[in-house]
Amino acid sequence: MTTPIIQNITRALWSNTGPKLSSLKGEESFIYEYLPPDLEQLSHAEIQEKFNALENDLLTSDFSPWAKIYAIGGEFFVNSASQPKLGEAIVSLYDLGIENFLKENTWDQVEFYEDYLTICGTFLRILSVKRPPPTLMETSLHTHANFVLCFKRHTAAHARRLLDFRRRIHFSGLFKAIRDINGENAYKEAESTLEGLAQGDTALFDVELFFILKGKTKEDLDEETFTFLDSMKGLDASVQIESRALPYFFQTLVPGVAPSFKRKLLIPSHYLTGLIPYSHDHLMPGQNTGLTFKARSKADLKFDLFSPVAHNYNALITGSSGQGKSMLANRILKFELERGTRALCLDLGNSFRKNALFGEGLIFSERFNPLQYRNPRYLKEFVMAVLEEKLPKKEEGRLYEAITWILKTGVYSFEKFLSLLETEFPGISHYFAEIREYFSDGVHVGDCFIYCNLDNYPDNIKAPLVIFLIECFKNMPGRKVFIFDECWNLLSKNADYIAECFRTFRKHDASAVAISQNLDDFSETQLGRVIIQNTYFKFFFKQNLKPSEFVSEHLANQVASVLSKKGKYSEFVVSSENICKPARYYASALEYELFTSDKQDLNRFDHYMNESGKFLPYKDAMINYTKIKHPNWSQP
């Protein structure tokens, strides 16, 4: 490493009393943290409204004599003399120490070199903007690197003088024999801005913008710089690496110290709104715990199925085959089990079997006792699920009365139950003839995690079995989650009962996670519509959605934009009353092996289990297989 040019720039640049900062020149200011809205969740018209509100505050709020905005590590701060108003962003006083500016514990070990500096072994480079991008994707610049945006507003009179001078400079270009397109555009822009100034709907600002790049080593910093410069070139922006003036500009970027405006640009208010970081990825503001997804920007998104803001804890996962529905449902299941939530999983196609064995779930017995639960409403639905056709309302009532009477006799044998029911409904026992072998008089013992694979049962027992398992689930103590894997066609005769369960699960501290294919097809059935209406959270994977009573045009467009990448991540839209956010789930190596339903992956694992894994407990075998297949994976 070369010898530092300057050492030990210290905190003598400013002093602080509580949250107030005072520079050596006597300027007093404060640091505020602000949380902007998540623009990715909004329609184009809604985004425009947010920026109109932001620009209005830039025109009317007091930012004198200057303001600085810091975008550091995905967090946003304002340094100004008074609390600013930034549209609909939540602004609050920040007094946790200004060392958070660069996320370092001390500024006592700053060393400057030719075109970079170090702070406590971290390498940094400061680049100033000479020409910003001609067009801006709203608030996108902060996604390229940390930056400091300094600005101060000109009075209307001073702004008009500046623009008039600029207009005169470019006016002569209009009469050149060869057209000066840039000069014409500058002239027209000045004319338009002058009109805005006269009407009070625009303002002019002196702006300077510095990017801060970081690396663990000098080589990392150089690589980061090369990538950054390439991205700026793609935006048609021009930046310069600060070198001789590096110590000077570093000091002016310190919170509490006035900006230099030596690199100033004259910027109208509508363009400044695009420079200000004004979008923050979130699913549930203030949620710091829960299941972690990723935004497209790679920012963490926290999700809690049992969030107190939810009207119910139910969720619907829908999308075309192969997009990652079962991967997501498996992740939700594993996360809930790890935090002590009880679970019951109703599987089709072995999508959850490995997760169940790994989590030491109880594999449901082939035989069960429907009379284990003495609820006449449940038993009525159980019987109806076996019948060929749905009963008229009057007959449903008579069936309910008969079951209530039979239960009062103290019967615990289902065979005896059927014989007594036969006296009220002659011939009804014949519907149970082929499925009698699946009934027992024993009592099913509950567990923290119950797994049932419907593929192990014939079609005529599946519907009543689901009804039994719902009752089993309702009788589990504590918080619980029920995974339904695409079995809705079995329950058409019990639509009202299933709907009531979905509506009342929250009272039992319970969540139902329903999985289905295309939402449009699902919404055409009575049961499907009820489930849609009674699931607060919805996860939409790639599918063809049409705007409807359940799907806004904005949501349909969001879903059309998602795309999962096999082996990398599953992408989906999380939707609720207040959420419409694309998100990604990146599976760890262990999670991928647990959750994958890819035939080739399954064959490889089965081969391992037949050869070596059979000698180990299942959980140890899965971990060992993952280590073999993914040598770089380390068990958390």
Mean pLDDT score: 86
What is the terminal-to-terminal distance? Answer: 36 Å
Helix content: 25-40%
Strand content: 15-25%
Secondary-structure class: alpha+beta
Q: What does the radius of gyration come to?
A: 32 Å
Can you tell me the residue ranges where pLDDT is under 50 for at least 5 consecutive residues? 7-12, 100-105, 169-187
Count the beta strands: 25
Q: Biggest β-sheet: count, sense, barrel? A: 14 strands, antiparallel
Broad shape: elongated
- Determine the number of helices (DSSP H or I, runs of at least 4 residues): 19
Compact overview of the structure:
With 636 residues, the protein is an alpha+beta fold. It is built from 19 helices and 25 strands.
Task: Describe the secondary-structure layout.
Elements: E1 6-7, E2 14-17, E3 20-23, E4 28-35, H1 44-60, E5 67-72, E6 75-80, E7 90-93, E8 110-112, E9 117-119, E10 122-131, E11 146-153, H2 156-171, H3 181-199, E12 204-215, H4 218-234, E13 238-241, H5 246-253, E14 265-268, H6 269-275, E15 291-294, E16 300-303, E17 315-318, H7 325-338, E18 342-347, H8 353-358, E19 362-363, H9 376-386, H10 393-408, H11 414-424, E20 449-453, H12 459-474, E21 480-485, H13 495-504, E22 510-516, H14 519-522, H15 526-533, E23 537-540, H16 553-561, E24 570-575, E25 580-585, H17 589-595, H18 599-611, H19 618-629
Parallel strand pairs: 17-22, 17-23, 18-20, 18-21, 19-20, 21-22
Antiparallel strand pairs: 1-8, 2-3, 3-4, 4-6, 4-7, 5-6, 5-11, 8-9, 9-10, 10-12, 10-13, 11-12, 12-14, 15-16, 23-24, 24-25
